[in-house]
Amino acid sequence: MGQIHMTQVLVTGAGGYIGTALVPLLLDAGYAVRAVDRFYFGRHLLPEHDRLEVVVEDSRKLTPAHFQGVDAVIDLAAISNDPSGELFQEATYQINRDSRVRAAHLAREAGVRRYMLPSSCSIYGFQEGGVIADESSPTNPLTTYARANEMAERGVLPLADEKFCVVVLRQATVYGLSPRMRFDLAINGMTFGAWKTGKLPLMRDGTQWRPMVHVRDTARAQMFMLEADPAKVNGEIFNVGSAGNVYQIGPLGELVAGYVPRDVEIEWYGDPDVRSYRVAFDKIEALGYRTEKTAADGVAEVCKALEAGTLDKTIRTITLDWYRELARWHRIIREVEMYGGIVEI
Ligand SMILES: NC(=O)c1ccc[n+]([C@@H]2O[C@H](COP(=O)([O-])OP(=O)(O)OC[C@H]3O[C@@H](n4cnc5c(N)ncnc54)[C@H](O)[C@@H]3O)[C@@H](O)[C@H]2O)c1
What is the distance between the alpha carbons of residues 174 and 284, in angstroms, rounded to a whole number? Predict the structure, then answer.
């Protein structure tokens, strides 16, 4: 990386799948990081570091003080998938749309120079077979999650001006190993099923197109955009991924099966997926950004961690199940808690 101009980076959602992969890379590159998160997935997943400041806060409650002294914001905090977005619709609009637009306003008012919105290629929704969507293609968001992301994009982009650089990154579906692991993402879920049971779960009907990106590659794209020339990126949307990592789900399942070290059968599930999108990455590549990891790299590192016993598919790795579980325990605890305690008070 060239000379660092940004020094203090505020990362919301820093305790998430992408955040816990991104923060160590930022620290290694010399940045100071203010990590803001409610830490739904635990507070133990970020490294101890003298340039890391951890702020436990809800993104809906951020104040101007959180943005003081910050050079750039990477606004990852969100309800992060379609089923969770449908279950918690109102919260998804509050967190994924309203809080991010508000964070961008607060950042601009505090003199922050750059704001990055990590959005999603899922806002392309369904595109006819031959269409390869680029950043100027019509979008077709099919879920609450995708609609909230698109509204957030529309809310933050107009704030761009010569003092405030706004960049939207539409990330492909992410895969690979991260401290806050997610097995509810396509490649990771396939890998776990195949490794554990010899049955690789594939969502019907397998013809749907989906772009993929490794978690450290998307983290690197965010770092790349911290230093990219504002004249080339300000007010712009970039798809994040690579042409070589766009698949139909059926062939992708066979590819993943081939890298799992045991005999694997395909097990189909669900109704045919209505989401199907092929995506072009020429715009980000024209700036010089390139992904480094293949799908095989992700499968191999996940299998290695499973084999070593350092990784397992717990309920926390399935975002929807974990949010449901937290809501269930919240109800139980509210019923039995008295005087600030349960058995001991
Ligand atoms: N993983 C993917 O495949 C993918 C693809 C495209 C876009 N994205 C986007 O990237 C971002 C991060 O995704 P992820 O995979 O790391 O998800 P994640 O669920 O692992 O992380 C989200 C983080 O945000 C935090 N959070 C949620 N609501 C909060 C609130 N109100 N206040 C404070 N913190 C809150 C959670 O505790 C969690 O640590 C999301 O915006 C997601 O939509 C992810």
Answer: 17
Note the pLDDT tens digit of each residue in 268-313. Answer: 999 888 888 899 999 999 999 999 999 999 999 999 999 999 999 9
Question: Which neighbouring-strand residues pair with 199?
Answer: 265
Asked if residue 216 lies in contact with residue 210, where contact means CB atoms within 8 angstroms, the answer is no
Whether the CB of 173 sits within 6 Å of ligand 1: yes
Q: Phi-psi category of 124—alpha, beta or left, where left has phi over 0 and alpha has psi -120 to 50?
A: alpha
Percent of the chain at pLDDT exceeding 90: 91
CATH architecture type of domain 8-322: 3-Layer(aba) Sandwich (3.40)
In angstroms, what is the span from residue 16 Cα to ligand 1's centroid?
Answer: 6
Ligand 1 close to Cβ of residue 40 (< 6 A)? yes
β 8-12/32-37 pair status: parallel
How far does residue 79's CA lie from ligand 1's centre (Å)? Answer: 6
Q: How far apart are CA 268 and CA 248, in angstroms?
A: 14
* Paired tokens of 64: 């101007």
Point out the ligand 1 atom lying closest to the alpha carbon of residue 39: 37
Q: Alpha-carbon distance 153 to 75, whole Å?
A: 12
What pLDDT was estimated at residue 5?
66
pLDDT of 2 over the 60 cut:
no
Question: Does the Cβ of 319 fall within 6 Å of ligand 1?
Answer: yes
State if residue 298 touches ligand 1 by the CB under 6 angstroms criterion. no
Ligand 1 atom 6, closest CA: 120
Residue 66 contacts residue 303 (beta carbons within 8 Å): no
320: confidence class by pLDDT, cuts 50, 70, 90: very high
Identity of the residue numbered 170: R
Pocket test for ligand 1, best of 39, 43, 76, 225 (most atoms within 8 A of CB): 76
